[in-house]
Specification:
With about 325 residues, the chain is of the alpha/beta class. The protein folds into 3 domains: about 5-75 and about 120-195, P-loop containing nucleotide triphosphate hydrolases (Rossmann fold); about 80-110, no CATH class; about 200-305, no CATH class. The chain has helices at about 5-15, 20-35, 45-60, 75, 80-95, 100-110, 120-125, 145-155, 185-190, 200-210, 220-230, 240-255, 265-270, 275-285, 285-305; strands at about 35-40, 60-65, 80, 115-120, 130-135, 155-160, 165, 175-180, 195. The chain has a 5-stranded parallel beta sheet with strand order 2-5-8-1-9, with helices on both faces. A two-stranded antiparallel sheet has the order 3-4. It is elongated and about 80 Å long. The relative contact order is 0.12.
């Protein structure tokens, strides 16, 4: 996928993704060794976005398996198209009866790839060109399904009843994400490279906002980065994601607001409070105003860190 570590860095930069040296090394090693990356961290910390930018950088497409309770092989790997099988039988044989010997020959035609609808896991293996396979929120499925992934991630093949073993035409770049709702099994961890995702520091979030938004003042980007830090320290039920902060920057521009002010609380609440409990907390007297005041505190701390000094707040 990538000619060198420097090539990867340039491609991610062109995709406007801010990656630190450790992340670059993990992505590059995973692409060269054909190892999946297991990315764990809170929702909104940028795990899924990594799959998107790697696909852009590699000039390929994404196959996404969105995990959920009840996910099975039929949705993940694929299934035979019974309607198409019936059409084949009707068009070929009509209503005429056939014996057991003939039925054996017919079944050999019915259970082949022509009648199989591939799911995202199989599509990734059958892609002529290596793609990005995103297995998103794997912590939402049980250990049984997690175990079924091991053959694909280790042997790069899928054993499908009645179809047989389907081997990969190309090795995908695999990113497995987890919001840590449950602990994943050691077999999956053993086969993966690991990255822990957290919400970004204020400095990194400012860089992300700068890379992903255009036509905004640097002061506003800094304010939004500080606001994100203040909100995440406020113990909200639903902490703001990086994507939501990017949306906030663009919304401020649409609304013609050049700064975040306490008097704009009611206007901004729908953009940052995504549960009724969080909305009620931010509606409390001085709740939102205190967050706005905290923006400057975070800005001052960041500036002090850049100058190598410290600030103390009572």
């Amino acid at each position: 996928m990538f000619a060198s570590l420097e090539d990867l860095a340039k491609r991610l930069e062109a995709a406007r993704y801010i990656a630190d040296p450790v992340m670059l090394n993990v992505i590059y090693v995973a692409s060269k060794l054909g190892k999946p990356i297991l990315a764990e961290g809170p929702p909104g910390s940028g795990k899924t976005e990594l799959a998107r930018v790697v696909a852009i950088a590699a000039e390929t497409h994404i196959e996404r398996l969105q995990c959920f309770a009840g996910l099975d092989d039929r949705k993940a790997i694929g299934h035979f198209d019974e309607a198409l099988q019936r059409v084949y039988l009707t068009s070929r044989y009509g209503d005429q009866p056939f014996g057991d010997e003939e039925w054996g020959s017919i079944k050999s035609h019915l259970y082949r790839e022509d009648f199989f609808i591939a799911g995202p896991l199989l599509r990734a293996l059958l892609s002529p060109k290596p793609c990005v396979l995103l297995i998103d929120e794997v912590d939402k499925v049980g250990e049984e399904f997690e175990a079924q992934l091991l053959e694909i991630l280790e042997e790069w093949q899928a054993s499908i009843p009645r179809l047989g073993t389907v081997k990969a035409k190309s090795i995908p770049f695999v990113l497995i994400t987890s919001n840590q709702q449950r602990r994943l099994g050691d077999p999956l961890r053993r086969r993966s490279l690991y990255m822990q995702f957290d919400h970004p520091s204020m400095e990194r979030e400012q860089k992300i906002i700068r890379a992903r938004t255009q036509g905004h003042s640097e002061h506003l980007r800094l304010e939004v980065a500080g606001f994100a830090q203040a909100l995440r320290g406020y113990r909200l039920q639903k902490q703001p994601s990086i994507a939501e902060m990017l949306d906030l920057v663009n919304a401020l521009d649409v609304l013609g607001l050049k700064s975040i002010n306490a008097e704009d609380r009611d206007t901004l609440l729908p953009l940052i409070a995504k549960t009724e409990k969080d909305r009620e907390r931010l509606m409390l007297r001085d709740g939102f105003a205190s967050l706005v005041c905290d923006i400057q505190c975070h800005i001052d701390r960041l500036n002090a860190d850049r100058l190598g000094g410290t600030l103390t707040y009572a």
